[in-house]
Amino acid sequence: MTYPTVVRTLAASSVLAGSLLTGVAKELAGGELTVTADASVDNAYGLSGTNGGDSLHGAMVAGVAWDQKPVEGRPVSFSAFASALWVEGHGPTDQFLSDDMAASNSEAYESLRLYEWWGQATAGAWSVRMGALLADTEFCGTTPGGALINSGFGWPAFISASTLNTGPAYYAAALGTRLAFTGETTTWKLGVYDGDSFDAPDGNDRPNRHGTHYELNNDQGAFIISELNWAPTHSAFRYQVGAWMHTADFEDKIDTGTLHSGNYGAYAALERTLAGKTGEKGNIEAHVRAGFAPEDRNAFGWTLDTGIAAIGLLPGRDADTLALGLVYADRATNVDGLDFEQVAELSYTVVLNDHLSLQPDLQYIRHPGSDSTRDNALLFLLRLSASY
Question: What digits encode the pLDDT tens for the residues 126-152?
Fold first, then answer.
């Protein structure tokens, strides 16, 4: 099955969403070595508009990180990370839904692969990271979006559908470099990555199915993204603006055969803490995010998503999270006669213990696949997550 370009997406904290990471830490070579494993299993059921249908799939990430201990008088410290990803089974998009923004953000081609690996040097507020990287773990994320399962709340369609094979995001890392400045209230990041993490413009996952095939050439270009985040002191608001570009050639969606040199887009997000402190009981966070890309060469002209997440609303359930989100993706003008896809999602994460959580999730999808001739779909999904 050839996935739609927008399917292979995952929120920055999605398959590991609400991770209760503990890990095993050991001293090694003047630093701390930490081994972790995180997994999720999704069981989805089509309640209406899908002619029934059910799916079962899972994903697991195992990683090892090394962080050098700070030493007085040494201006630069180093860290490293490597991970492997295993995906098994088929999700609802593949099995019966055929939506644009994958209902499960952990859905991907079945594979066992080398995932993300990198080395990083940090000097004061500056850091540079090089290796096989994931842009969706560092760019364009929101706090409430990480509590939702639909991929439209993670690596957004205005980027994933506008690059080759979704760009450097779940489930295929890309060779690249990331530069970051982290100040007290401001964070700036710049990433430059291989333009095609699949090394196959047609979306064939076989050339890089195991994450060990790396190819750089002019035809697949480079993906470049920059983002500025500002969180003013004593303010409940946080601001995010960003822009991206891709240097490959992109075919015109209306005038077939015409090529455009490069692709680009911009985005902005606003988050607000409505109550409490982030991550603690009583905390309520809300966001709105929007982005656009040129309609003449992209599947979507613009998308908009908003969400709200609250921790510990129910008595005795201090760590549970209730989240509600709405995402709208507008198809580019006159592209294949399609119009838009819209998703409303309600989700509740039950923290069972320090390692396990259970997340029942309900999604109502208008115009699955952006096709107005199809029935709207109602989907129930149950996710079991484990972290060690």
Answer: 999 999 999 999 999 999 999 999 999
As a whole number of angstroms, the distance between CA 341 and CA 103 comes to 12
Each residue's pLDDT tens digit, 236-245: 999 999 999 9
Work out the end-to-end distance of the chain between its first and last CA atoms, rounded to an integer number of angstroms: 33
Structure tokens that stand for 41 in this block: 């299993």
Q: Which domain holds residue 211?
A: 5-387
Q: Give Cα separations from 251 to 172, 196, 263 (angstroms).
A: 23, 16, 10
Distances (CA, A) of 68 to 22, 28, 120, 124: 19, 9, 10, 14
CA dist 146 and 140 (Å) reads 11
Q: What is the DSSP string of 84-145?
A: EEEEEEE-HIIIII--SS-SSTT----EEEEEEEEEEEEETTEEEEEEEE-GGGTSS--TGG
Peptide bond into 239 cis (omega under 30): no
* Collapsed DSSP state (helix, strand, coil) of residue 233: coil
Residue 213, CB half-sphere, CA atoms under 13 Å: how many?
A: 11
CATH number at residue 38: 2.40.160.180
Q: How far apart are CA 124 and CA 255, in angstroms?
A: 50
Q: Number of folded domains in the chain?
A: 1
Cα–Cα distance for residue pair 239/232, rounded to 1 Å: 9
User: Is the whole model's pTM more than 0.70, yes or no?
Assistant: yes
Going by C-alpha positions, the residue among 101, 89, 86 that lies closest to residue 54 is 89
Q: Which two tokens stand for residue 100?
A: 């644009």
Tokens of 321: 């999270």
Contact status, residue 363 vs residue 379, Cβ threshold 8 Å: yes
